[in-house]
């Protein structure tokens, strides 16, 4: 069973080199402990809290940035997978991006698809797809922060076969329900592992609440944090998420999560605004 970790920590605003240095130190320590996948928060490499498009452009980095190349080299060397978020600048557009590094593979990227009116996201172009990524440990879906508020996002990834959904996030004060309840509900209603990785600390007037969690497909929290820096670790068995059958009492109380769906009744869900 793969062992995964979420690194809940503060971020050095506008200093990708310093953040990368801390990330690499964590990767080295955790890979030595047998962890196969390490998840870091949303916009971890760059910071998030800006109030103008000019400030957003100042912190954003391209996918070709030296820091991302350094992380790729280290994941190759340490033989560990990594998911980390950053503010991206690409083709004159700003994107809220998470990258999946896997040893021996080209980095794969997810662009945040649902945007709140907050911080860096106020100036960002929406992502246009909800992909899953086939890796050596299983099928990983990635969402970022506010994406979780929409039940369709997790359901889409689960229907594509995601074993685990990684959620780099920047939950500020006021997001307690998302951290404590919504993530657990999404795991339970899709019978899928969800690992939420929030940050802590203060940044340009915003305080972040932490409360990262690793949650199993029955909504049970395997490890969690409060509002201080912490590394969460859990061993997960992907067979739990691949088997959508729930047997409470054999022959009397059994359900299969997706087989009971009635897509023909959900007409309004797929309509555009």
Give a quick set of tags describing it.
6-stranded mixed sheet, 6 helices, 273 residues, Nitrilase/N-carbamoyl-D-aminoacid amidohydrolase, alpha/beta, 24% helix, 16 strands, globular
What would you say about this model in short?
The protein has 273 residues and is of the alpha/beta class. It has helices at residues 16-32, 53-59, 66-78, 151-159, 176-190, 239-242; strands at 3-8, 37-39, 81-90, 93-101, 108-111, 132-134, 139-142, 164-168, 193-197, 200-203, 206-209, 213-215, 221-224, 230-235, 245-249, 253-256.
Please give a structural write-up.
The chain has 273 residues and is of the alpha/beta class. The protein has one domain (3-239): 4-Layer Sandwich (Nitrilase/N-carbamoyl-D-aminoacid amidohydrolase). The protein is 24% helix and 29% strand. It is built from 6 helices and 16 strands. It has helices at residues 16-32, 53-59, 66-78, 151-159, 176-190, 239-242; strands at residues 3-8, 37-39, 81-90, 93-101, 108-111, 132-134, 139-142, 164-168, 193-197, 200-203, 206-209, 213-215, 221-224, 230-235, 245-249, 253-256. The strands form 4 sheets. A 6-stranded mixed beta sheet has the order 5-4-3-2-1-14. Strands 6-7-8-9-12-13 form a 6-stranded mixed beta sheet, covered by helices on one side. Helix 1 (16-32) runs parallel beside helix 3 and helix 4 (151-159) runs parallel beside helix 5 (176-190). The longest helix has 17 residues, at 16-32. The model has no long low-confidence stretch (mean pLDDT 96).
């Amino acid at each position: 069973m793969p062992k995964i970790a979420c690194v809940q920590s503060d971020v050095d605003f506008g200093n990708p080199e310093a953040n990368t240095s801390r990330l690499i130190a964590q990767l080295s320590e955790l890979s030595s402990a047998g962890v196969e996948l390490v998840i870091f928060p949303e916009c971890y490499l760059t910071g998030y809290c800006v109030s103008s498009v000019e400030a957003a452009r100042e912190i954003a980095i391209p996918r070709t940035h030296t820091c991302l190349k350094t992380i790729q080299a280290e994941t190759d060397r340490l033989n560990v997978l990594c998911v980390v978020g950053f503010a991206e600048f690409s083709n004159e557009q700003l994107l809220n991006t998470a990258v999946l590094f896997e040893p021996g593979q080209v980095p794969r990227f997810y662009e945040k698809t649902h945007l709140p009116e907050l911080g860096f996201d106020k100036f960002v172009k929406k992502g246009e797809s909800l992909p899953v990524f086939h890796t050596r440990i299983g099928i990983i879906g990635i969402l970022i922060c506010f994406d979780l508020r929409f039940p369709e996002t997790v359901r889409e990834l689960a229907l594509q076969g995601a074993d685990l959904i990684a959620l780099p996030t920047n939950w500020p004060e006021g997001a307690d329900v998302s951290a404590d309840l919504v993530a657990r509900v999404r795991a339970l209603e899709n019978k899928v592992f969800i690992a939420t990785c929030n940050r802590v600390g203060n940044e340009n007037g915003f305080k972040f609440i932490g409360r990262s969690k690793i949650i199993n497909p029955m909504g049970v929290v395997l490890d969690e944090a409060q509002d201080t820096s912490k590394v969460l670790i859990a061993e997960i068995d992907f067979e739990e998420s691949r088997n959508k059958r729930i047997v409470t009492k054999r022959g009397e109380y059994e359900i299969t999560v997706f087989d009971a769906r009635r897509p023909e009744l959900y007409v309004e869900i797929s309509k555009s605004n």
